[in-house]
Amino acid sequence: MTGESAVSEQKVAEVAELGSQSGREALANARRVVVKIGSALLTDDGRGLDDAGIGRWVDQIAALHARGVEVIVVSSGAIAVGMSRLGWSARPSGVHELQAAAAVGQNGLTQCYEEHFHRHGLTTAQILLTHDDLSNRKRYLNARSALRTLVDLRVVPVINENDTVVTDEIRFGDNDTLGALVANLLEADALLLLTDQEGLYDADPRHDPAASLIEEAQADDPILVKVAGGGGVLGRGGMATKVRAARLAARSGALTVIASGRQPEVITRLASGERFGTLLLPEHAPIAARKRWIAGQLQVRGTLTLDAGAVNVLTTRGSSLLPVGVRKIEGAFKRGDLVQCVDESGQRIAKGLVNYSAEDAGRILGLPSHQIEATLGYIEAPELIHRDNLIVL
Ligand SMILES: Nc1ncnc2c1ncn2[C@@H]1O[C@H](COP(=O)(O)OP(=O)(O)O)[C@@H](O)[C@H]1O
Ligand SMILES: N[C@@H](CCC(=O)OP(=O)(O)O)C(=O)O
């Protein structure tokens, strides 16, 4: 088990080891894997729940499990299954109807996974998360402990977004992001995104029959964002969120594979190093768990506009952000909230946890740190954001 603020030494050693292997070999040696199964696939493109498909994926996961690999499932499909159970042919637009469909459908999903894993003598656990659960540090640590305990107990967690209670403010919105955050949370070695396409193409194959498959790339290659489009009718995020998920997963050193769940023995073959689908590789060693948590947060409470000097020291030296380098403050944030830092043209530079409320930050902006106490009557810290709580984007 790792400490709370840093990636475990063991994980760093594993990632160093991974760097010396090909990505496919590293996949074959993965000890902890998050398998995300998308709506487009699970619901057989809208024809109810693909029970036989789930049965086959579960068989493969059980075989990995028997080899000692820890597998965590992130499964979409609640809304689509709910729609089918309620006899609705079109996805409703109203929030409450979507929530109702998710509540009905999640039952069906859970039951289906439970039955199939039961055939292999494996116990499952249903975990429904909202973005809020992972953005509040205390709840994040709590979720991590619960998941680690389940994995240690050799239970297979089956995770989905808690669609019945989410509102737009606390929504992941797509399960690719959820899968990546779970991979971060558990320091998984690999994230397998199973979908209805063979992988990431250089254009959306639904619209461009000449599109060709990208077999391997660095997760943070900017070209990927350009080629990845939105999703189909059932899926939410399309390839755009899969690419973003791969970048998030890479922050904790996890490899991502995007592959078709309809390939025979897809999980078994990927986990034995076979080459198919799109492999997206982490470029860097994992970053500290706290920074990773910051990187995974989507909701910022405010914006600090930095001058050119501050942008320079943050991006080239990894320095803390001092009030003297801040030009403008927007938003109503409190001490400890997540804020974003932008340059004077509005370009996003960094995100971090701020040491002062918006009101107090506004009073010290542009000042050297030795004037903080005289200005506010107290000093919390000489930095507006300490470098340990700051992540450059
Ligand atoms: N460059 C691309 N390569 C492959 N698929 C793409 C690309 N851009 C957009 N897509 C779309 O992404 C869809 C898969 O995403 P999505 O529908 O969200 O599925 P899932 O539910 O599995 O997450 C594909 O059906 C395809 O139409
Ligand atoms: N949580 C939602 C799924 C969200 C979703 O469709 O995500 P994805 O499969 O990534 O496109 C559900 O269970 O219906």
UniProtKB/TrEMBL annotation:
Subcellular location: Cytoplasm
GO molecular function: glutamate 5-kinase activity
Xref: Gene3D superfamilies: Acetylglutamate kinase-like (3.40.1160.10), PUA domain (2.30.130.10)
Key words, A-Z: Amino-acid biosynthesis, ATP-binding, Cytoplasm, Kinase, Nucleotide-binding, Proline biosynthesis, Transferase
Reactions catalysed: L-glutamate + ATP = L-glutamyl 5-phosphate + ADP
Residues that coordinate or bind ATP: 36, 195-196
InterPro entries linked: AceGlu_kinase-like_sf (IPR036393), Asp/Glu/Uridylate_kinase (IPR001048), G5K_ProB (IPR041739), Glu/AcGlu_kinase (IPR001057), Glu_5kinase (IPR011529), Glu_5kinase/COase_Synthase (IPR005715), Glutamate_5-kinase_CS (IPR019797), PUA (IPR002478)
Segments forming a coiled coil: none
CDD domains, per database record: AAK_G5K_ProB, PUA_G5K
Subcellular location, principal: cytoplasm
Residues involved in substrate binding: 76, 163, 175
TM region positions: none
EC identifiers of the protein: 2.7.2.11
Span of domain PUA: 302-385
Pathway listed: Amino-acid biosynthesis; L-proline biosynthesis; L-glutamate 5-semialdehyde from L-glutamate: step 1/2
Catalytic class of the enzyme: transferase
Family: Belongs to the glutamate 5-kinase family.
Its biological purpose: Catalyzes the transfer of a phosphate group to glutamate to form L-glutamate 5-phosphate.
Name the record gives this protein: Glutamate 5-kinase
Native source organism of the sequence: Cobetia amphilecti
Name of the coding gene: proB
